[in-house]
Amino acid sequence: MSCKMLLSIKRKALRKRTWFSELSNIERGLINSVLNAFESVKSRHLVAILERIIAKLRKTLESGFARMVESVGWELVRRRILQAVSMGCLGARRWLDDRGFAEFLTVLELNTPVAFKA
């Protein structure tokens, strides 16, 4: 694991003000110690620990829209695929890999007035 990548994530977390709120003292200290002591991490055990911390930070660093796509957009894609397949469009299964379609449906959902929702 490269310390450049670790430093990049630390800077983003500091900029977004999640470094102190999301990580414990031990997690912050571990990352700071690794950044000060190494250029790259080779220990599998240490890499596994750092990956858990990085996953925690990445989750908080993603935008609100990205979280909406994950929670709402992919569910809407799944529903549209089921509708299309039930009407005979077997090629609709390819939509499951289309992130742009999920983003499109999320934008539609966000901009649909409450009066029009079932």
Shape: elongated
Q: How many separate structural domains? A: 2
Mean pLDDT: 91
- Nearest-angstrom radius of gyration? 20 Å
Structural class: mainly alpha
Measured between the Cα atoms of the first and last residue, the distance is 48 Å
Question: Beta-strand level of the residues, as a percent range?
Answer: under 5%
Order of helices and strands: HHHHHH
Give the strand tally.
0
What does this structure look like?
This protein has 118 residues and is mainly alpha-helical. The chain folds into two domains: 3-61, no CATH class; 65-116, no CATH class. Helices cover 71% and strands 0% of the residues. The protein has helices at residues 3-15, 19-22, 25-37, 44-61, 64-86, 99-111. Helix 1 (3-15) runs parallel beside helix 4. The longest helix has 23 residues, at 64-86. The radius of gyration is 20 Å and the shape is elongated. It starts with a helix and ends in a 7-residue tail after the last helix. The mean pLDDT is 91.
